[in-house]
């Protein structure tokens, strides 16, 4: 199965998990340490890993080498026999016919050996060159065949005739000596002809080289040259050293040798071999394991990325494919970035005048950006962030297609990874990304593309970028002030036209849009006003969304932030949130974790806009008694005796709601005292942590510290209870 590099896939099957399990930036994320994969000690020649296709070539090279060496040894023995025994011992008594036959055989054999050595050398040097070069190799080939055939014919003729001149006494030993010599010459010639027949049968008739090239996904002109050279080199090693030397060769190590120690043309050939192998499902893993342990090979591949000659686009593409596949493996990605100048070489791909190279460069950066330190290096590479952003733009007259659309998607993926980087590095990267004037406008163009195949994934990526950038307060204000961003997010979050059938992709976009709006509303009075305006100068649609299971958590979070940060000028408008009090109170009584958490926070803000009579009416409509509500809040504090990673602010929201209830209706003070709220509050005060002090988290780093701490809320609640007592 052929695995061509999938640089940017289309829409993926997005599954919407349970809201209680969906991670967001409003909860901290622990670093997950995954153990390295277990690798079997042997990966070659076992039942699950059959021999690679090139093994057929090395086996053929072994067979041919056995025949060639056997013929050569017989030839050597025949030469010694002729010179030492016949020409030295019987030179005077030899007949004229035998003398010239022996001399001819020795000369012809010398010509064959000379032609053989030059043929192998010529085949190795001229593989893949012009047919002017191929013709010379054929001359050497036919010269050997003629030499071997003439030797076989002449030797056989003399053995058949056996008319040796001289006296009877001289003919006794000389007859045997000549028979041995002609027999050796005949055997040598026949072995060589058998070797040539085997070569012609397997390589010519059965086209073994072409079949192996196809099996290795090298069925191109360059691939055919690579396979042929591999075969000749394997055969040469079997001839020049041990006959088993060629068996240890495989295409990966052969390509590695070409890459690191070969000439410029050989380096190009080695890169093309590796690219073909890593694009194959069958050979990719084994190839990457071998390349990943070769530092010189990785360095040479990185160097090739920056080759800028117009004639070197193909080799540059091959090197980029291999580097892309390497960087998909964490340890290999670290080896790549340790090479001096590696990031600059990768960045050079983004300046190439070939779309595929641009896309490969973005894909490599996307792989590298999975590591925190690599994100820092990307940010520090001069001009790289600007170049990455430049690929995220979509032209105004419609979305691009083909390779350009993939480049947009891959650019968004890289920017998303960079914007979601944690810690100080992430803070600096988000600031640098938001400072680039094209970042938000390009994202807006992506969001405004509609009804195109695969656009849902583009939307999700674009929204996630905005959400991450908005963790920075200045960027949050800048995003909200960019025309069309807020209104587009609102339209995606609560579209006017609802789909007849469920669409998981669009539901995922709605969830992400809600998180982005909640983030933009956090601590920003101006953004809150823009969001209210985008919803039609009201919050009725948001209140209705509290009944939508897809976006209920996002809707509640947006409403809570609007109530908290919108400012006095919107107080009258925000009174509309009280129409959702019944739904929120029911959620508090029956829901768990995240939905319970945000419902507690929203209820506390709703009470600011409600009169005591409205609260009692809402409780009655929801079928909730005062005592049941008070008991639920006490049980929440009891259940969450310590801060929770999943719902880090649930105790804070519970205390806020308890305080609001006590201030709204004195009956709740009595109920809380009777239910033991004071003891639960003391336990909360003793277990507070920094986890509860922040609204947003970048990994495990808290951002946007809250103005009111849990400890101060405990003090306020205790004071209210003491005053009533």
UniProtKB/TrEMBL annotation:
Membrane-spanning ranges: 74-95
Keywords recorded for this protein, A-Z: Membrane, Transmembrane, Transmembrane helix
Protein species of origin: Miscanthus lutarioriparius
Origin: domain of life: Eukaryota
Protein name: ARM repeat superfamily protein
PANTHER family (UniProt xref): ARM REPEAT SUPERFAMILY PROTEIN, OS03G0145400 PROTEIN
């Amino acid at each position: 199965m052929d695995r061509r590099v999938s640089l940017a896939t289309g829409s993926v099957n997005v599954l919407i998990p349970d809201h209680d399990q969906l991670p967001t930036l409003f909860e901290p994320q622990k670093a997950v340490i995954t153990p390295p994969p277990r690798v079997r000690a042997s990966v070659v020649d076992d039942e699950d890993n059959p021999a690679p296709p090139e093994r057929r070539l090395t086996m053929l090279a072994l067979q041919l080498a056995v025949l060639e060496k056997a013929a050569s040894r017989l030839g050597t023995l025949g030469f010694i026999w002729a010179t030492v025994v016949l020409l030295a011992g019987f030179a005077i008594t030899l007949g004229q016919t035998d003398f010239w036959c022996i001399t001819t055989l020795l000369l012809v054999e010398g010509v064959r050996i000379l032609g053989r050595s030059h043929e192998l050398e010529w085949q190795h040097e001229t593989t893949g060159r012009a047919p002017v070069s191929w013709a010379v190799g054929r001359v050497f080939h036919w010269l050997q065949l003629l030499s071997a055939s003439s030797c076989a014919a002449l030797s056989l003729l003399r053995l058949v005739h056996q008319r040796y001149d001289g006296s009877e006494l001289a003919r006794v030993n000389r007859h045997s000596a000549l028979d041995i010599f002609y027999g050796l010459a005949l055997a040598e010639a026949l072995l060589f002809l058998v070797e040539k027949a085997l070569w012609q049968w397997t390589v010519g008739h059965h086209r073994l080289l072409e079949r192996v090239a196809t099996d290795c996904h090298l069925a191109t002109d360059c691939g055919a040259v690579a396979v042929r050279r591999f075969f000749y080199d394997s055969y040469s090693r079997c001839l020049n050293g041990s006959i088993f030397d060629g068996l240890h060769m495989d295409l990966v190590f052969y390509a590695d040798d070409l890459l690191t120690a070969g000439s410029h043309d050989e380096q190009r050939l080695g890169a093309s071999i590796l690219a073909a192998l890593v694009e194959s499902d069958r050979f990719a893993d084994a190839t990457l394991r071998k390349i990943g342990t070769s530092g010189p090979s990785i360095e040479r591949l990185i160097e090739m990325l920056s080759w800028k000659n117009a004639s070197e686009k193909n080799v540059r593409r091959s090197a980029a494919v291999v580097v892309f596949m390497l960087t998909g493996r964490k340890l290999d990605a670290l080896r790549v970035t340790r090479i001096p100048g590696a990031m600059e070489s990768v960045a050079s791909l983004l300046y190439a005048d070939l779309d595929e190279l641009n896309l490969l460069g973005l894909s490599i950066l996307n792989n590298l950006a999975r590591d925190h330190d690599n994100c820092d290096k990307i940010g520090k590479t001069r001009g790289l962030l600007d170049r990455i952003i430049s690929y995220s733009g979509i032209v105004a007259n419609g979305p691009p297609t083909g390779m350009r659309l993939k480049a947009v998607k891959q650019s968004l993926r890289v920017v998303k990874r960079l914007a979601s980087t944690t810690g100080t590095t992430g803070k600096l990267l988000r600031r640098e990304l938001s400072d680039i004037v094209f970042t938000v406008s390009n994202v807006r163009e992506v969001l405004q593309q509609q009804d195109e195949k695969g656009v849902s994934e583009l939307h999700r990526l674009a929204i996630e970028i905005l959400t991450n950038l908005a963790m920075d307060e200045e960027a949050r204000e800048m995003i909200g002030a960019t025309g069309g961003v807020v209104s587009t997010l609102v339209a995606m979050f609560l579209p006017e036209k609802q789909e007849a059938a469920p669409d998981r992709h669009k539901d995922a976009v709605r969830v992400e849009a809600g998180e982005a709006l909640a983030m933009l509303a956090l601590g920003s009075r101006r953004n809150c006003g823009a969001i209210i305006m985008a919803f039609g100068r009201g919050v009725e649609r948001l209140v209705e969304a509290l009944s939508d299971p897809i976006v209920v958590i996002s809707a509640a979070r947006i409403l809570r932030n609007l109530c908290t940060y919108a400012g006095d000028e919107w107080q009258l408008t925000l009174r509309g949130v009280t129409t959702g009090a019944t739904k929120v109170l029911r959620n508090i009584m029956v829901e768990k974790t995240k939905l319970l958490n945000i419902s507690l926070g929203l209820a506390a803000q709703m009470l600011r806009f409600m009169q005591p009579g409205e609260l009692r009416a809402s409780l009655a409509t929801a079928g909730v008694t005062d005592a049941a509500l008070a008991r639920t809040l006490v049980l929440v504090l009891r259940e969450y005796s310590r801060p929770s990673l999943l719902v880090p602010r649930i105790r804070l929201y519970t205390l806020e709601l308890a305080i609001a209830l006590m201030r709204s209706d004195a009956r709740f003070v009595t109920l809380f005292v009777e239910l033991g709220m004071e003891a639960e509050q003391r336990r909360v005060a003793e277990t507070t942590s920094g986890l509860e002090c922040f609204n947003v988290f970048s990994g495990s780093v808290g951002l946007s510290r809250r103005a009111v701490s849990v400890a101060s809320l405990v003090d306020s609640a205790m004071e209210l209870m003491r005053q009533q007592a």
